[in-house]
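dumping this here so i dont lose it
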């Protein structure tokens, strides 16, 4: 018989195979703490709440908004730079039950390998201020730099991405990373205070 731990991992993998979010979160989300010093807004759009991903987003000005990708349990909104080599994106998904970061990261990497044929985890670190995991993963086509945020029954992967086989446009990457850092998630993002400076700044 399978061990209890193996059963839990398999259940998580099966549920996350439908990775995504329902129309309404199944658990009240906790506020996401932003860095003490927020990156400047130069080159970014004014913050606006995007219900599809349950987040306050500030995409770079002039970047193309791709059609929303979604399933019954996830949504993925991406903005692509004019040159087509850099992206800022927000994935929102639901979880069958609250789980730790390592199983979700494991699944993320597995799916990246399945889709791209290969994926290497270049780095990962816990950010106590953001209360989230930052990591960098390189696939055959894309290299992504997500902030992985889990809150109860839902989660987000907010990322800056570049094409692996193309030179990195540092100015575009800076815009994507600043947009990522200014992204607020969950119900707190929809409150009036989210439109201005976050509490404690």
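and the seq i came up w/
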């Amino acid at each position: 018989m399978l061990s209890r731990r193996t059963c839990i991992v398999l259940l998580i993998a099966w549920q996350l195979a439908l990775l995504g979010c329902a129309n309404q979160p199944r658990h009240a989300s906790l506020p996401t703490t932003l860095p003490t010093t927020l990156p400047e807004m130069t080159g970014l759009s004014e913050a606006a709440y995007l219900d599809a991903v349950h987040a306050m987003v500030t995409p770079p000005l002039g970047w193309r908004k791709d059609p929303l990708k979604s399933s019954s349990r996830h949504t993925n909104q991406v903005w692509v730079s004019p040159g087509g080599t850099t992206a800022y994106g927000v994935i929102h998904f639901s979880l069958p039950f609250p789980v730790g970061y390592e199983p979700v990261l494991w699944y993320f990497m597995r799916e990246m390998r399945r889709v791209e044929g290969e994926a290497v985890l270049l780095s990962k670190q816990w950010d106590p201020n953001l209360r989230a995991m930052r990591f960098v993963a390189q696939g055959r086509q894309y290299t992504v730099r997500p902030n992985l945020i889990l809150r109860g029954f839902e989660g987000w992967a907010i990322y800056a991405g570049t094409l692996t086989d193309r030179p990195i446009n540092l100015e575009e990457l800076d815009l994507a990373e600043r947009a990522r850092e200014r992204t607020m998630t969950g119900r707190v993002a929809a409150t009036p205070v989210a439109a201005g400076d976050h509490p404690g700044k």
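Residues 1-36, 193-201 have pLDDT under 50 and may be disordered.
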